[in-house]
Design brief:
- With 100 residues, the chain is an all-alpha fold.
- The protein has one domain (12-90).
- The chain is 72% helix and 0% strand.
- It contains five helices and no strands.
- The chain has helices spanning 2-9, 13-32, 39-48, 51-59, 66-90.
- The longest helix is centred in the C-terminal third of the chain and has 25 residues, at 66-90.
Length: 100
């Protein structure tokens, strides 16, 4: 029974591409956070650093439009900037860890 649940929860290759793109944007947003720029601008710069992952996600048949994927990446990247700044300024870092 447990094996069936785990198998059903497994990601598809398309999901992996989109997830890798979002993680790339989040990692680079955290890396660029000390710039002091607005979170959305930092996220947009991080997106530029993830061209390979972005192209793979755009070319996948995820059912999302490139515009939707880009907006989602900006949302997650901006959030990562805010969380990273909170961690740096207040040392409350519980939300910061990113999967490898």
């Amino acid at each position: 029974m447990i094996a069936l649940v785990v198998a059903a929860a497994a990601l598809t290759p398309v999901d992996d591409l989109v997830r890798d793109y979002m993680y790339c944007v989040r990692r680079n947003s955290a890396h660029l956070e000390p710039s002091g720029d607005p979170p959305e601008d930092v996220a947009k710069a991080a997106i530029m650093m993830c061209n390979r992952e972005e192209a793979a996600a755009f070319n996948s048949s995820s059912g999302s439009t490139p515009e939707h994927l880009r907006e989602t990446a900006i949302f997650y990247g901006s959030g990562q900037v805010v969380v990273t700044r909170l961690c740096r300024k207040t040392r409350e870092c519980g939300l910061l860890p990113l999967p490898k």
